[in-house]
Amino acid sequence: MNLTYKQPVKIIFGSNKLNDLYSILKENELQKGMLVCDPYFIRSGLANKIMHYSKGLLTDVFFDITSNPTVSSVDTCAEIIRHKSIKFLAALGGGSALDCAKAAASVCLTKNSIVQYHSGDRKLTNEHIPLIAIPTTSGTGSEVSRKAVLTDPLRGIKAPISCDNFYPTIAIIDPVLTLSLPQKVTASTGFDALAHALEAYSSRYHRPESDAYCIEASRLIFEYLPKAYQNGSDMEAREKMSEASVLAGLAVDIAGTTASHACSYPLTYLYNIRHGEACAFTLDSFIRINAEVEEGRLHQLAIQIGFKDAYHMADRIAQMKTEMGMKTTLKDAGIEFSEIENLAILSMQPDMINNPVAITIDKLIKMYHSLV
Ligand SMILES: NC(=O)c1ccc[n+]([C@@H]2O[C@H](COP(=O)([O-])OP(=O)(O)OC[C@H]3O[C@@H](n4cnc5c(N)ncnc54)[C@H](O)[C@@H]3O)[C@@H](O)[C@H]2O)c1
Ligand SMILES: [Zn+2]
User: Fold this and answer.
1) Which distant-in-sequence residues (6+ apart) come within 8 Å of 250 by Cβ?
2) Which residue lies with its CA nearest to atom 41 of ligand 1?
3) How many angstroms separate the CA atoms of 326 and 80, rounded?
């Protein structure tokens, strides 16, 4: 065995765990913090409640964040941290708020823009201010990952940046926070978690421990995502989806993601498709491609969680996408036939290398052509 493994995030999981925020901050000697949150939580009042729960340990709020956060949001957040001498961040929201905060918590200790690190020109040093991640979607697993996915409109890309500094110090995963998710976001984020589990399982870098996380995460998602989608107040389904997304996030942190995630970045950037829905768009297609030549690994997973084989699992994914009103065809996604070649070229992102079957541009074009 030849292995370097680091998973430093302290995970605090359970319904209403957010109520313990003050004691968690106190225990970790954190003060003068800034809440970094999705603007939705300003409107919903939760941001205010959290400031109140913190009994003065959080002093500021930053909410200039959009879905698919931009490098300029990170730079603005980092500038406020420097200017106000903020000592820690608490990030509340989906992957967008968490990723913005993760990047800001590191880049604030430099004089530079995150663009220099996102573009690969510089490497971040091993320093960051502490970060408490409080996810409100069950999908990205960003709360346990060393990755932040950022969009740079000037360079015309959405791409991940990975760095050990980006691991949150603590993740407080409180499934109650996901009760307010709208149906569409429940579906999209649930499919993101499913893509994490199935891609990490088939990744060339999978390991026995990531396999175990993937099997349990995918089993939970096939059972509970339809329930959470049908009835957003189903607390058991919400809790199981939160559990699944953390497990899938832990798996991705070991094994990485593969072809569907590689394709998702240009699908989101060019066609404005939500991250999870963009992953789902090609997920069943790649399961079929990988199942043909992957010496049975995906079939083994499918059988373990109750399907006849990987093809039946792919059929169920296609059915769930339709049931949840997701985009399944080029037309639904707004992709013209003439744009497929460019889309295929842009889909050759680094995650593609992890795919167990070598994916060429010709294979991608054929796959996209089949989505009619
Ligand atoms: N860092 C990682 O490891 C990682 C992994 C996968 C994806 N991502 C990235 O994360 C981003 C997507 O994150 P996401 O899918 O969680 O969505 P998001 O953070 O963009 O949020 C989606 C929408 O849901 C709303 N929302 C969030 N929580 C809510 C709640 N509890 N109630 C009501 N509304 C709520 C938000 O306001 C927003 O409108 C993408 O940029 C994606 O690339 C990161
Ligand atoms: Zn993802």
Assistant:
1) 7, 141, 144, 210, 213
2) 68
3) 38
Residue nearest to atom 6 of ligand 1 (CA): 140
Verify that 194 and 270 share a domain, yes or no.
Answer: yes
Domain check: are 149 and 254 in the same one? no
Domain assignment present for residue 2? The answer is no
Ligand 2 midpoint to CA 55 (Å): 34
The H or E element containing residue 244 is helix 235-255
Q: Which two tokens mark 340?
A: 């497929």
Measured in Å, how far apart are the chain's first and last C-alpha atoms? 45
Q: Tell the burial category of 35 from Cβ atoms under 10 Å away from its Cβ (0-12, 13-18, 19+).
A: buried
User: In terms of residues, how long is the chain?
Assistant: 372
Q: Which domain holds residue 270?
A: 181-369
Largest CA distance in the chain: 58
| Nearest to 103, CA basis, from 137, 64, 75 | 75
CA 124-125-131 angle, to 5 degrees, is: 85
Could you tell me the distance, in angstroms and rounded to a whole number, from the CA of residue 362 to the centre of ligand 1?
A: 32
**What's the whole-number mean pLDDT along residues 9-34?**
97
Same domain for 234 and 186, yes or no, is yes
DSSP string covering 285-313: HHHHHHHHHSTTHHHHHHHHTT-SSHHHH
Of 195, 319, 327, 350, nearest to 267 (Cα)? 327
User: Which DSSP category does 15 fall into?
Assistant: T
- Which of 181, 184, 204 shows the shortest CA–CA distance to 135? 181
Whether residue 226 is found in the same domain as residue 321: yes
* Ligand 1 binding residues, C-beta < 6 A: 38, 40, 67-68, 93-97, 99, 136-137, 139-142, 145, 147-149, 177-178, 180-181, 185, 189, 192, 275-276
pLDDT for res 196: 98
- The per-residue pLDDT for range 24-83, each reduced to its tens digit, is 999 999 999 999 999 999 999 999 999 998 999 999 999 999 999 999 999 999 999 999
